[in-house]
Each structure stands twice: as structure tokens, then as C-alpha cells.
């Protein structure tokens, strides 16, 4: 009798152990190796952050999709996110400053019709100046430090100019516009063409000229007003070169106010050029 009772105790103990072990093992009859990839909902990332960082990607393959999308030959190539260029500035201190600048290329979102970027240059480094202006006027204004939003397709580059700093709300609004409306969002969100394979005609639009010139492997965007001497007239020139991206950029207002210029070998190519009213670059 005691032996029989002992056997019952042993049997009951084994059953209890088996039940405990089974309760600690999750049952998922559909589990596969791919389940080790985190789901998008598990990331505490905004839609914008998911596009900017591979830490928020669903998988390595989607990260590769984000990285390998620069197919326009006149835009910056794969893996180029910053470029150091020679710069020439005429800031609110009203004096010439020659100093290198860093152009930052930030990729915001990928769409079926193209890729959205922002471009921005670094501020003047006053610590490198021998005689910094005492009132702190050696700086690049926002409308010239932040070059705008660039929508890049296979055969054209469009830009939305901004006179202010980039904001998260504005970025998300533009991304949502392209998600909802596709390529038609270019018109609705004030994007203008600044590079194309075949160029564009020089047309007078109420005194303003905006056109793209074809020059070998370069596409030159020019924008200015016929009253170029007027102190309120904005001028701009962007030179895109096949396989290199922007090789020369000029912008400012009227008599060189807030003049910003940078490029490859800028000092060698324009050693003694006088920048007067933005006239020198007009074709």
C-alpha cells in the first residue's frame, strides 16, 4: 500500500513538472525565422525618423532600398551626404569673407516618382576670422543657409525654396502631400525645376527670368530679375555637373546683400571676379 501511494506521488509530481514547463513555452504554430525581424509598430519612431534612419527600418533589405535610389546623373551620388566646398560670403556685416563651407544632403523620403531631400550649408565660422565683426553680423541668413527642399526624379530636379529654417511640421506636411498626391504635389507645394537633361527656354515672366542652360555635362539654372540693380531683387545660379552634383552655387539679393557662393575650386576658377549686383553670372 505504501509503495502504491509513493508511485502515485511520483506520477503526480511528474505531471505537475510537465504542466509547468509547457506553460512557460509560448505556442506559435506560424513562427518562422523571419519573426526575428521587429515589426514597424515596435519602433518608437515617427514616419520621418523611419525614413532618415535604418534603425527604424523593417529589415536590412528596406535599408538598402533607401540607400540605393539616386539615379539622376546630375544629383549627388550614392553615399554622399556632405561635401566640403570653397565659399565666398557677403553677410550683413557688408564685407567679403572667404571660407570653406560644408553642404549637407539629407534624404527625407522615397516615393514612386522620386526622392525628397533637403540641402543646407554650414554657418560662417567666426572663430576662423582674424577680425570678427563686433555686432555679430558675420552670419548667413536663414533663407540662404537653408537651400530648400529638392525632389529628385530620374530625369529632373525640382526645388522648393525656403526663407526659413526647416521644421519637422513642414517636412511631414510635404511628405504627406507626396504620399497623397504623387508627382502633382510638385505644383501644389511650389516646387520649380532647377535641372533637366534638355534644359528649358529663357522666358520673361513679369520681369523675372528662370531657365536651365545645357553646357556639355553641366546644367546651369539661372534666376534673376531684369531690374538687377534693385536692392530687393533675388538672384540665383546653380551649376549641376554630371556625376558630381552641385559644383557652383550663387544666391543673394540686389547689391550683393546676403550674397552666398560656394563651389569646387571656387578661388581658382574665379580668382579676381568682382561680384557686383549679381550681374557677372547672368548669361
Could you explain how this protein is built, in words?
By secondary structure, this protein is α+β, with helices and mostly antiparallel strands. The chain is 22% helix and 31% strand. The chain contains seven helices and 13 strands. It has helices at residues 2-23, 47-52, 60-67, 142-145, 168-181, 185-188, 266-269, and strands at residues 82-90, 97-98, 101-110, 115-121, 146-152, 156-160, 192-196, 204-205, 208-215, 218-225, 234-241, 245-253, 257-263. It starts with a helix and ends in a 14-residue tail after the last helix. Mean pLDDT is 78; it is low at 20-67 and 274-283.
What is this entry, summarized?
With 283 residues, this protein is an alpha+beta fold. Helix content is 22%, strand content 31%. The protein is built from seven helices and 13 strands.
Q: Can you give keywords for this protein?
A:
283 residues; Lipocalin; 13-stranded antiparallel β-sheet; 22% helix
